[in-house]
Hints:
By secondary structure, this protein is α+β, with helices and mostly antiparallel strands. 38% of the residues lie in helices and 25% in strands. The chain contains 6 helices and 10 strands. A 6-stranded antiparallel beta sheet has the order 1-2-3-10-5-8, with no helix packed on it. The chain is elongated and about 85 Å long. The N and C termini lie far apart (81 Å). Residues 31-45 have low confidence and may be disordered.
Amino acid sequence: MTGIKDKGVRVEITRALFHFCKAFILIVLEKYETDHKHAIMAGGEVDDMDLQKNIAYNLKKIRQQQNISLDMLADQTGVSKSMLGQIERGEANPSIGVLGKITSGLHIELQELTKEPQNAFVLQRQQDLRPVKEGRSQYQIYNLFSPEEKKNFEIYQIEIMTGQNYTSGGHGQHTREYVLVSKGSLQLEVDNAVYTVEEKDSVRFDSDKAHMYRNVGEGMLVLHVVLTF
Length: 229
């Protein structure tokens, strides 16, 4: 009888441990999913509502770009048509498992669904710009447009006061600058050579080495620079 009782106790203990471990795993998975959704966006955290909107916009855009109907996408992913429709309308907050099925069916990376959509039209107003770099009473540099996905260039506006100059370090191998003199007269020093570039003229050069822009005209020198890398 004692052996039977001991066996029964062991079974109960095993069963209790099983239920405890199951509950613990579910808690860990739920916490992972919540944390992962907040960390999933490149460049920082994003709240659930913003993430849900990003997924809705990107899923519909990618599906239309691939010319896939909701029925076809449901077949490819194993996610129901009604659920896919709710996700596209921003009415459902999909789990990591559902997102995994969608990305697998569309053959895309998860970040393509969760990233913040890029606006097709962006208007930069001069009065809204703030310098990203400046030398007191010498120059101001504005970043007009930063790099976008698969577009390896930046656009800057450089303003240099009368008689002043701005020296830039090299930007690394395979970089190049395209410079338009929008206003004034530029003296450019690059690769141990000096060039004068007048208003409305343009110049292109490899920018892997240090170079200097000097204002040799009257009034402010305004340059618009495209940096490719």
